[in-house]
């Protein structure tokens, strides 16, 4: 039971990024996302991934690899925003 | 060492919400945040909090209680956005 709660929690906090990516791609902008939020989260999730690799935990590795991928997509749009702004 | 990586990872993925809250309060809008992202994350983090309470893990409880508080603040601004839109 307790492990089920952990699994569902992990699935949710990982997949939660999907609608955020959808929203950013739809508007072709990550304007409302804080760049610092993305940077801190990306470093944090990378460390969780490292933690999972050292612990040899497939669940941690898959969940955090997926979250990291999502954060990199969001970061890509954020960088695009900055370039667009600077060109104006 | 491995526990240190976990601690730093947890501290980062928790405190990452602070600049996002700062950005939302500054603009008085959570326009760029996906509502579904906030809903899924809030449920996910609540389950992580429940998991921490059952596991009696103070680290999990503190980290997720703080994240939950941050998500509720962001959700509050998102709801404010919806009301504002509907009034127009």
Number of helices of chain A: 4
Major β-sheet profile of chain A: none
Total strand segments of chain A: 0
Q: Using the CA coordinates, give the radius of gyration of chain A.
A: 15 Å
The percent range for strand residues of chain A is under 5%
Low-confidence stretches of chain A: none
Structural class by sheet pairing and helices of chain A? mainly alpha
Order of helices and strands of chain A: HHHH
Oligomer: homodimer
Silhouette of chain A: elongated
Draw up the topology in text.
2 copies of one chain form a homodimer.
Chain A: H1 2-15, H2 17-27, H3 35-55, H4 58-87
Helix pairs in contact in A: 1-4, 2-4, 3-4
Structural summary, described in words:
- The first copy, chain A, is mainly alpha-helical and 88 residues long.
- Chain A has 4 helices and no strands.
- In chain A, helix 2 (17-27) runs parallel beside helix 4.
- The termini of chain A are far apart.
- In chain A, 36% of the residues are buried.
- The A-B interface holds A 2, 5-6, 8-17, 19-20, 22-24, 27, 29-37, 40-41, 43-45, 47-48, 50-51, 54-55 and B 2, 5-6, 8-17, 19-20, 22-24, 27, 29-37, 40-41, 43-45, 47-48, 50-51, 54-55.
Quick gist of this model?
The structure is a homodimer of 88-residue chains. Helices cover 86% and strands 0% of the residues of chain A.
């Amino acid at each position: 039971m307790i492990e089920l709660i952990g699994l569902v929690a992990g699935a949710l906090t990982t997949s939660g990024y999907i609608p955020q990516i959808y929203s950013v791609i739809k508007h072709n902008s990550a304007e409302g996302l804080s760049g610092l939020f993305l940077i801190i989260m990306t470093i944090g999730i990378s460390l969780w991934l490292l933690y999972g690799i050292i612990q040899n935990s497939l669940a941690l590795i898959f969940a955090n690899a997926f979250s990291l991928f999502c954060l990199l997509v969001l970061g890509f749009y954020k960088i695009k925003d900055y370039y667009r702004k600077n060109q104006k």
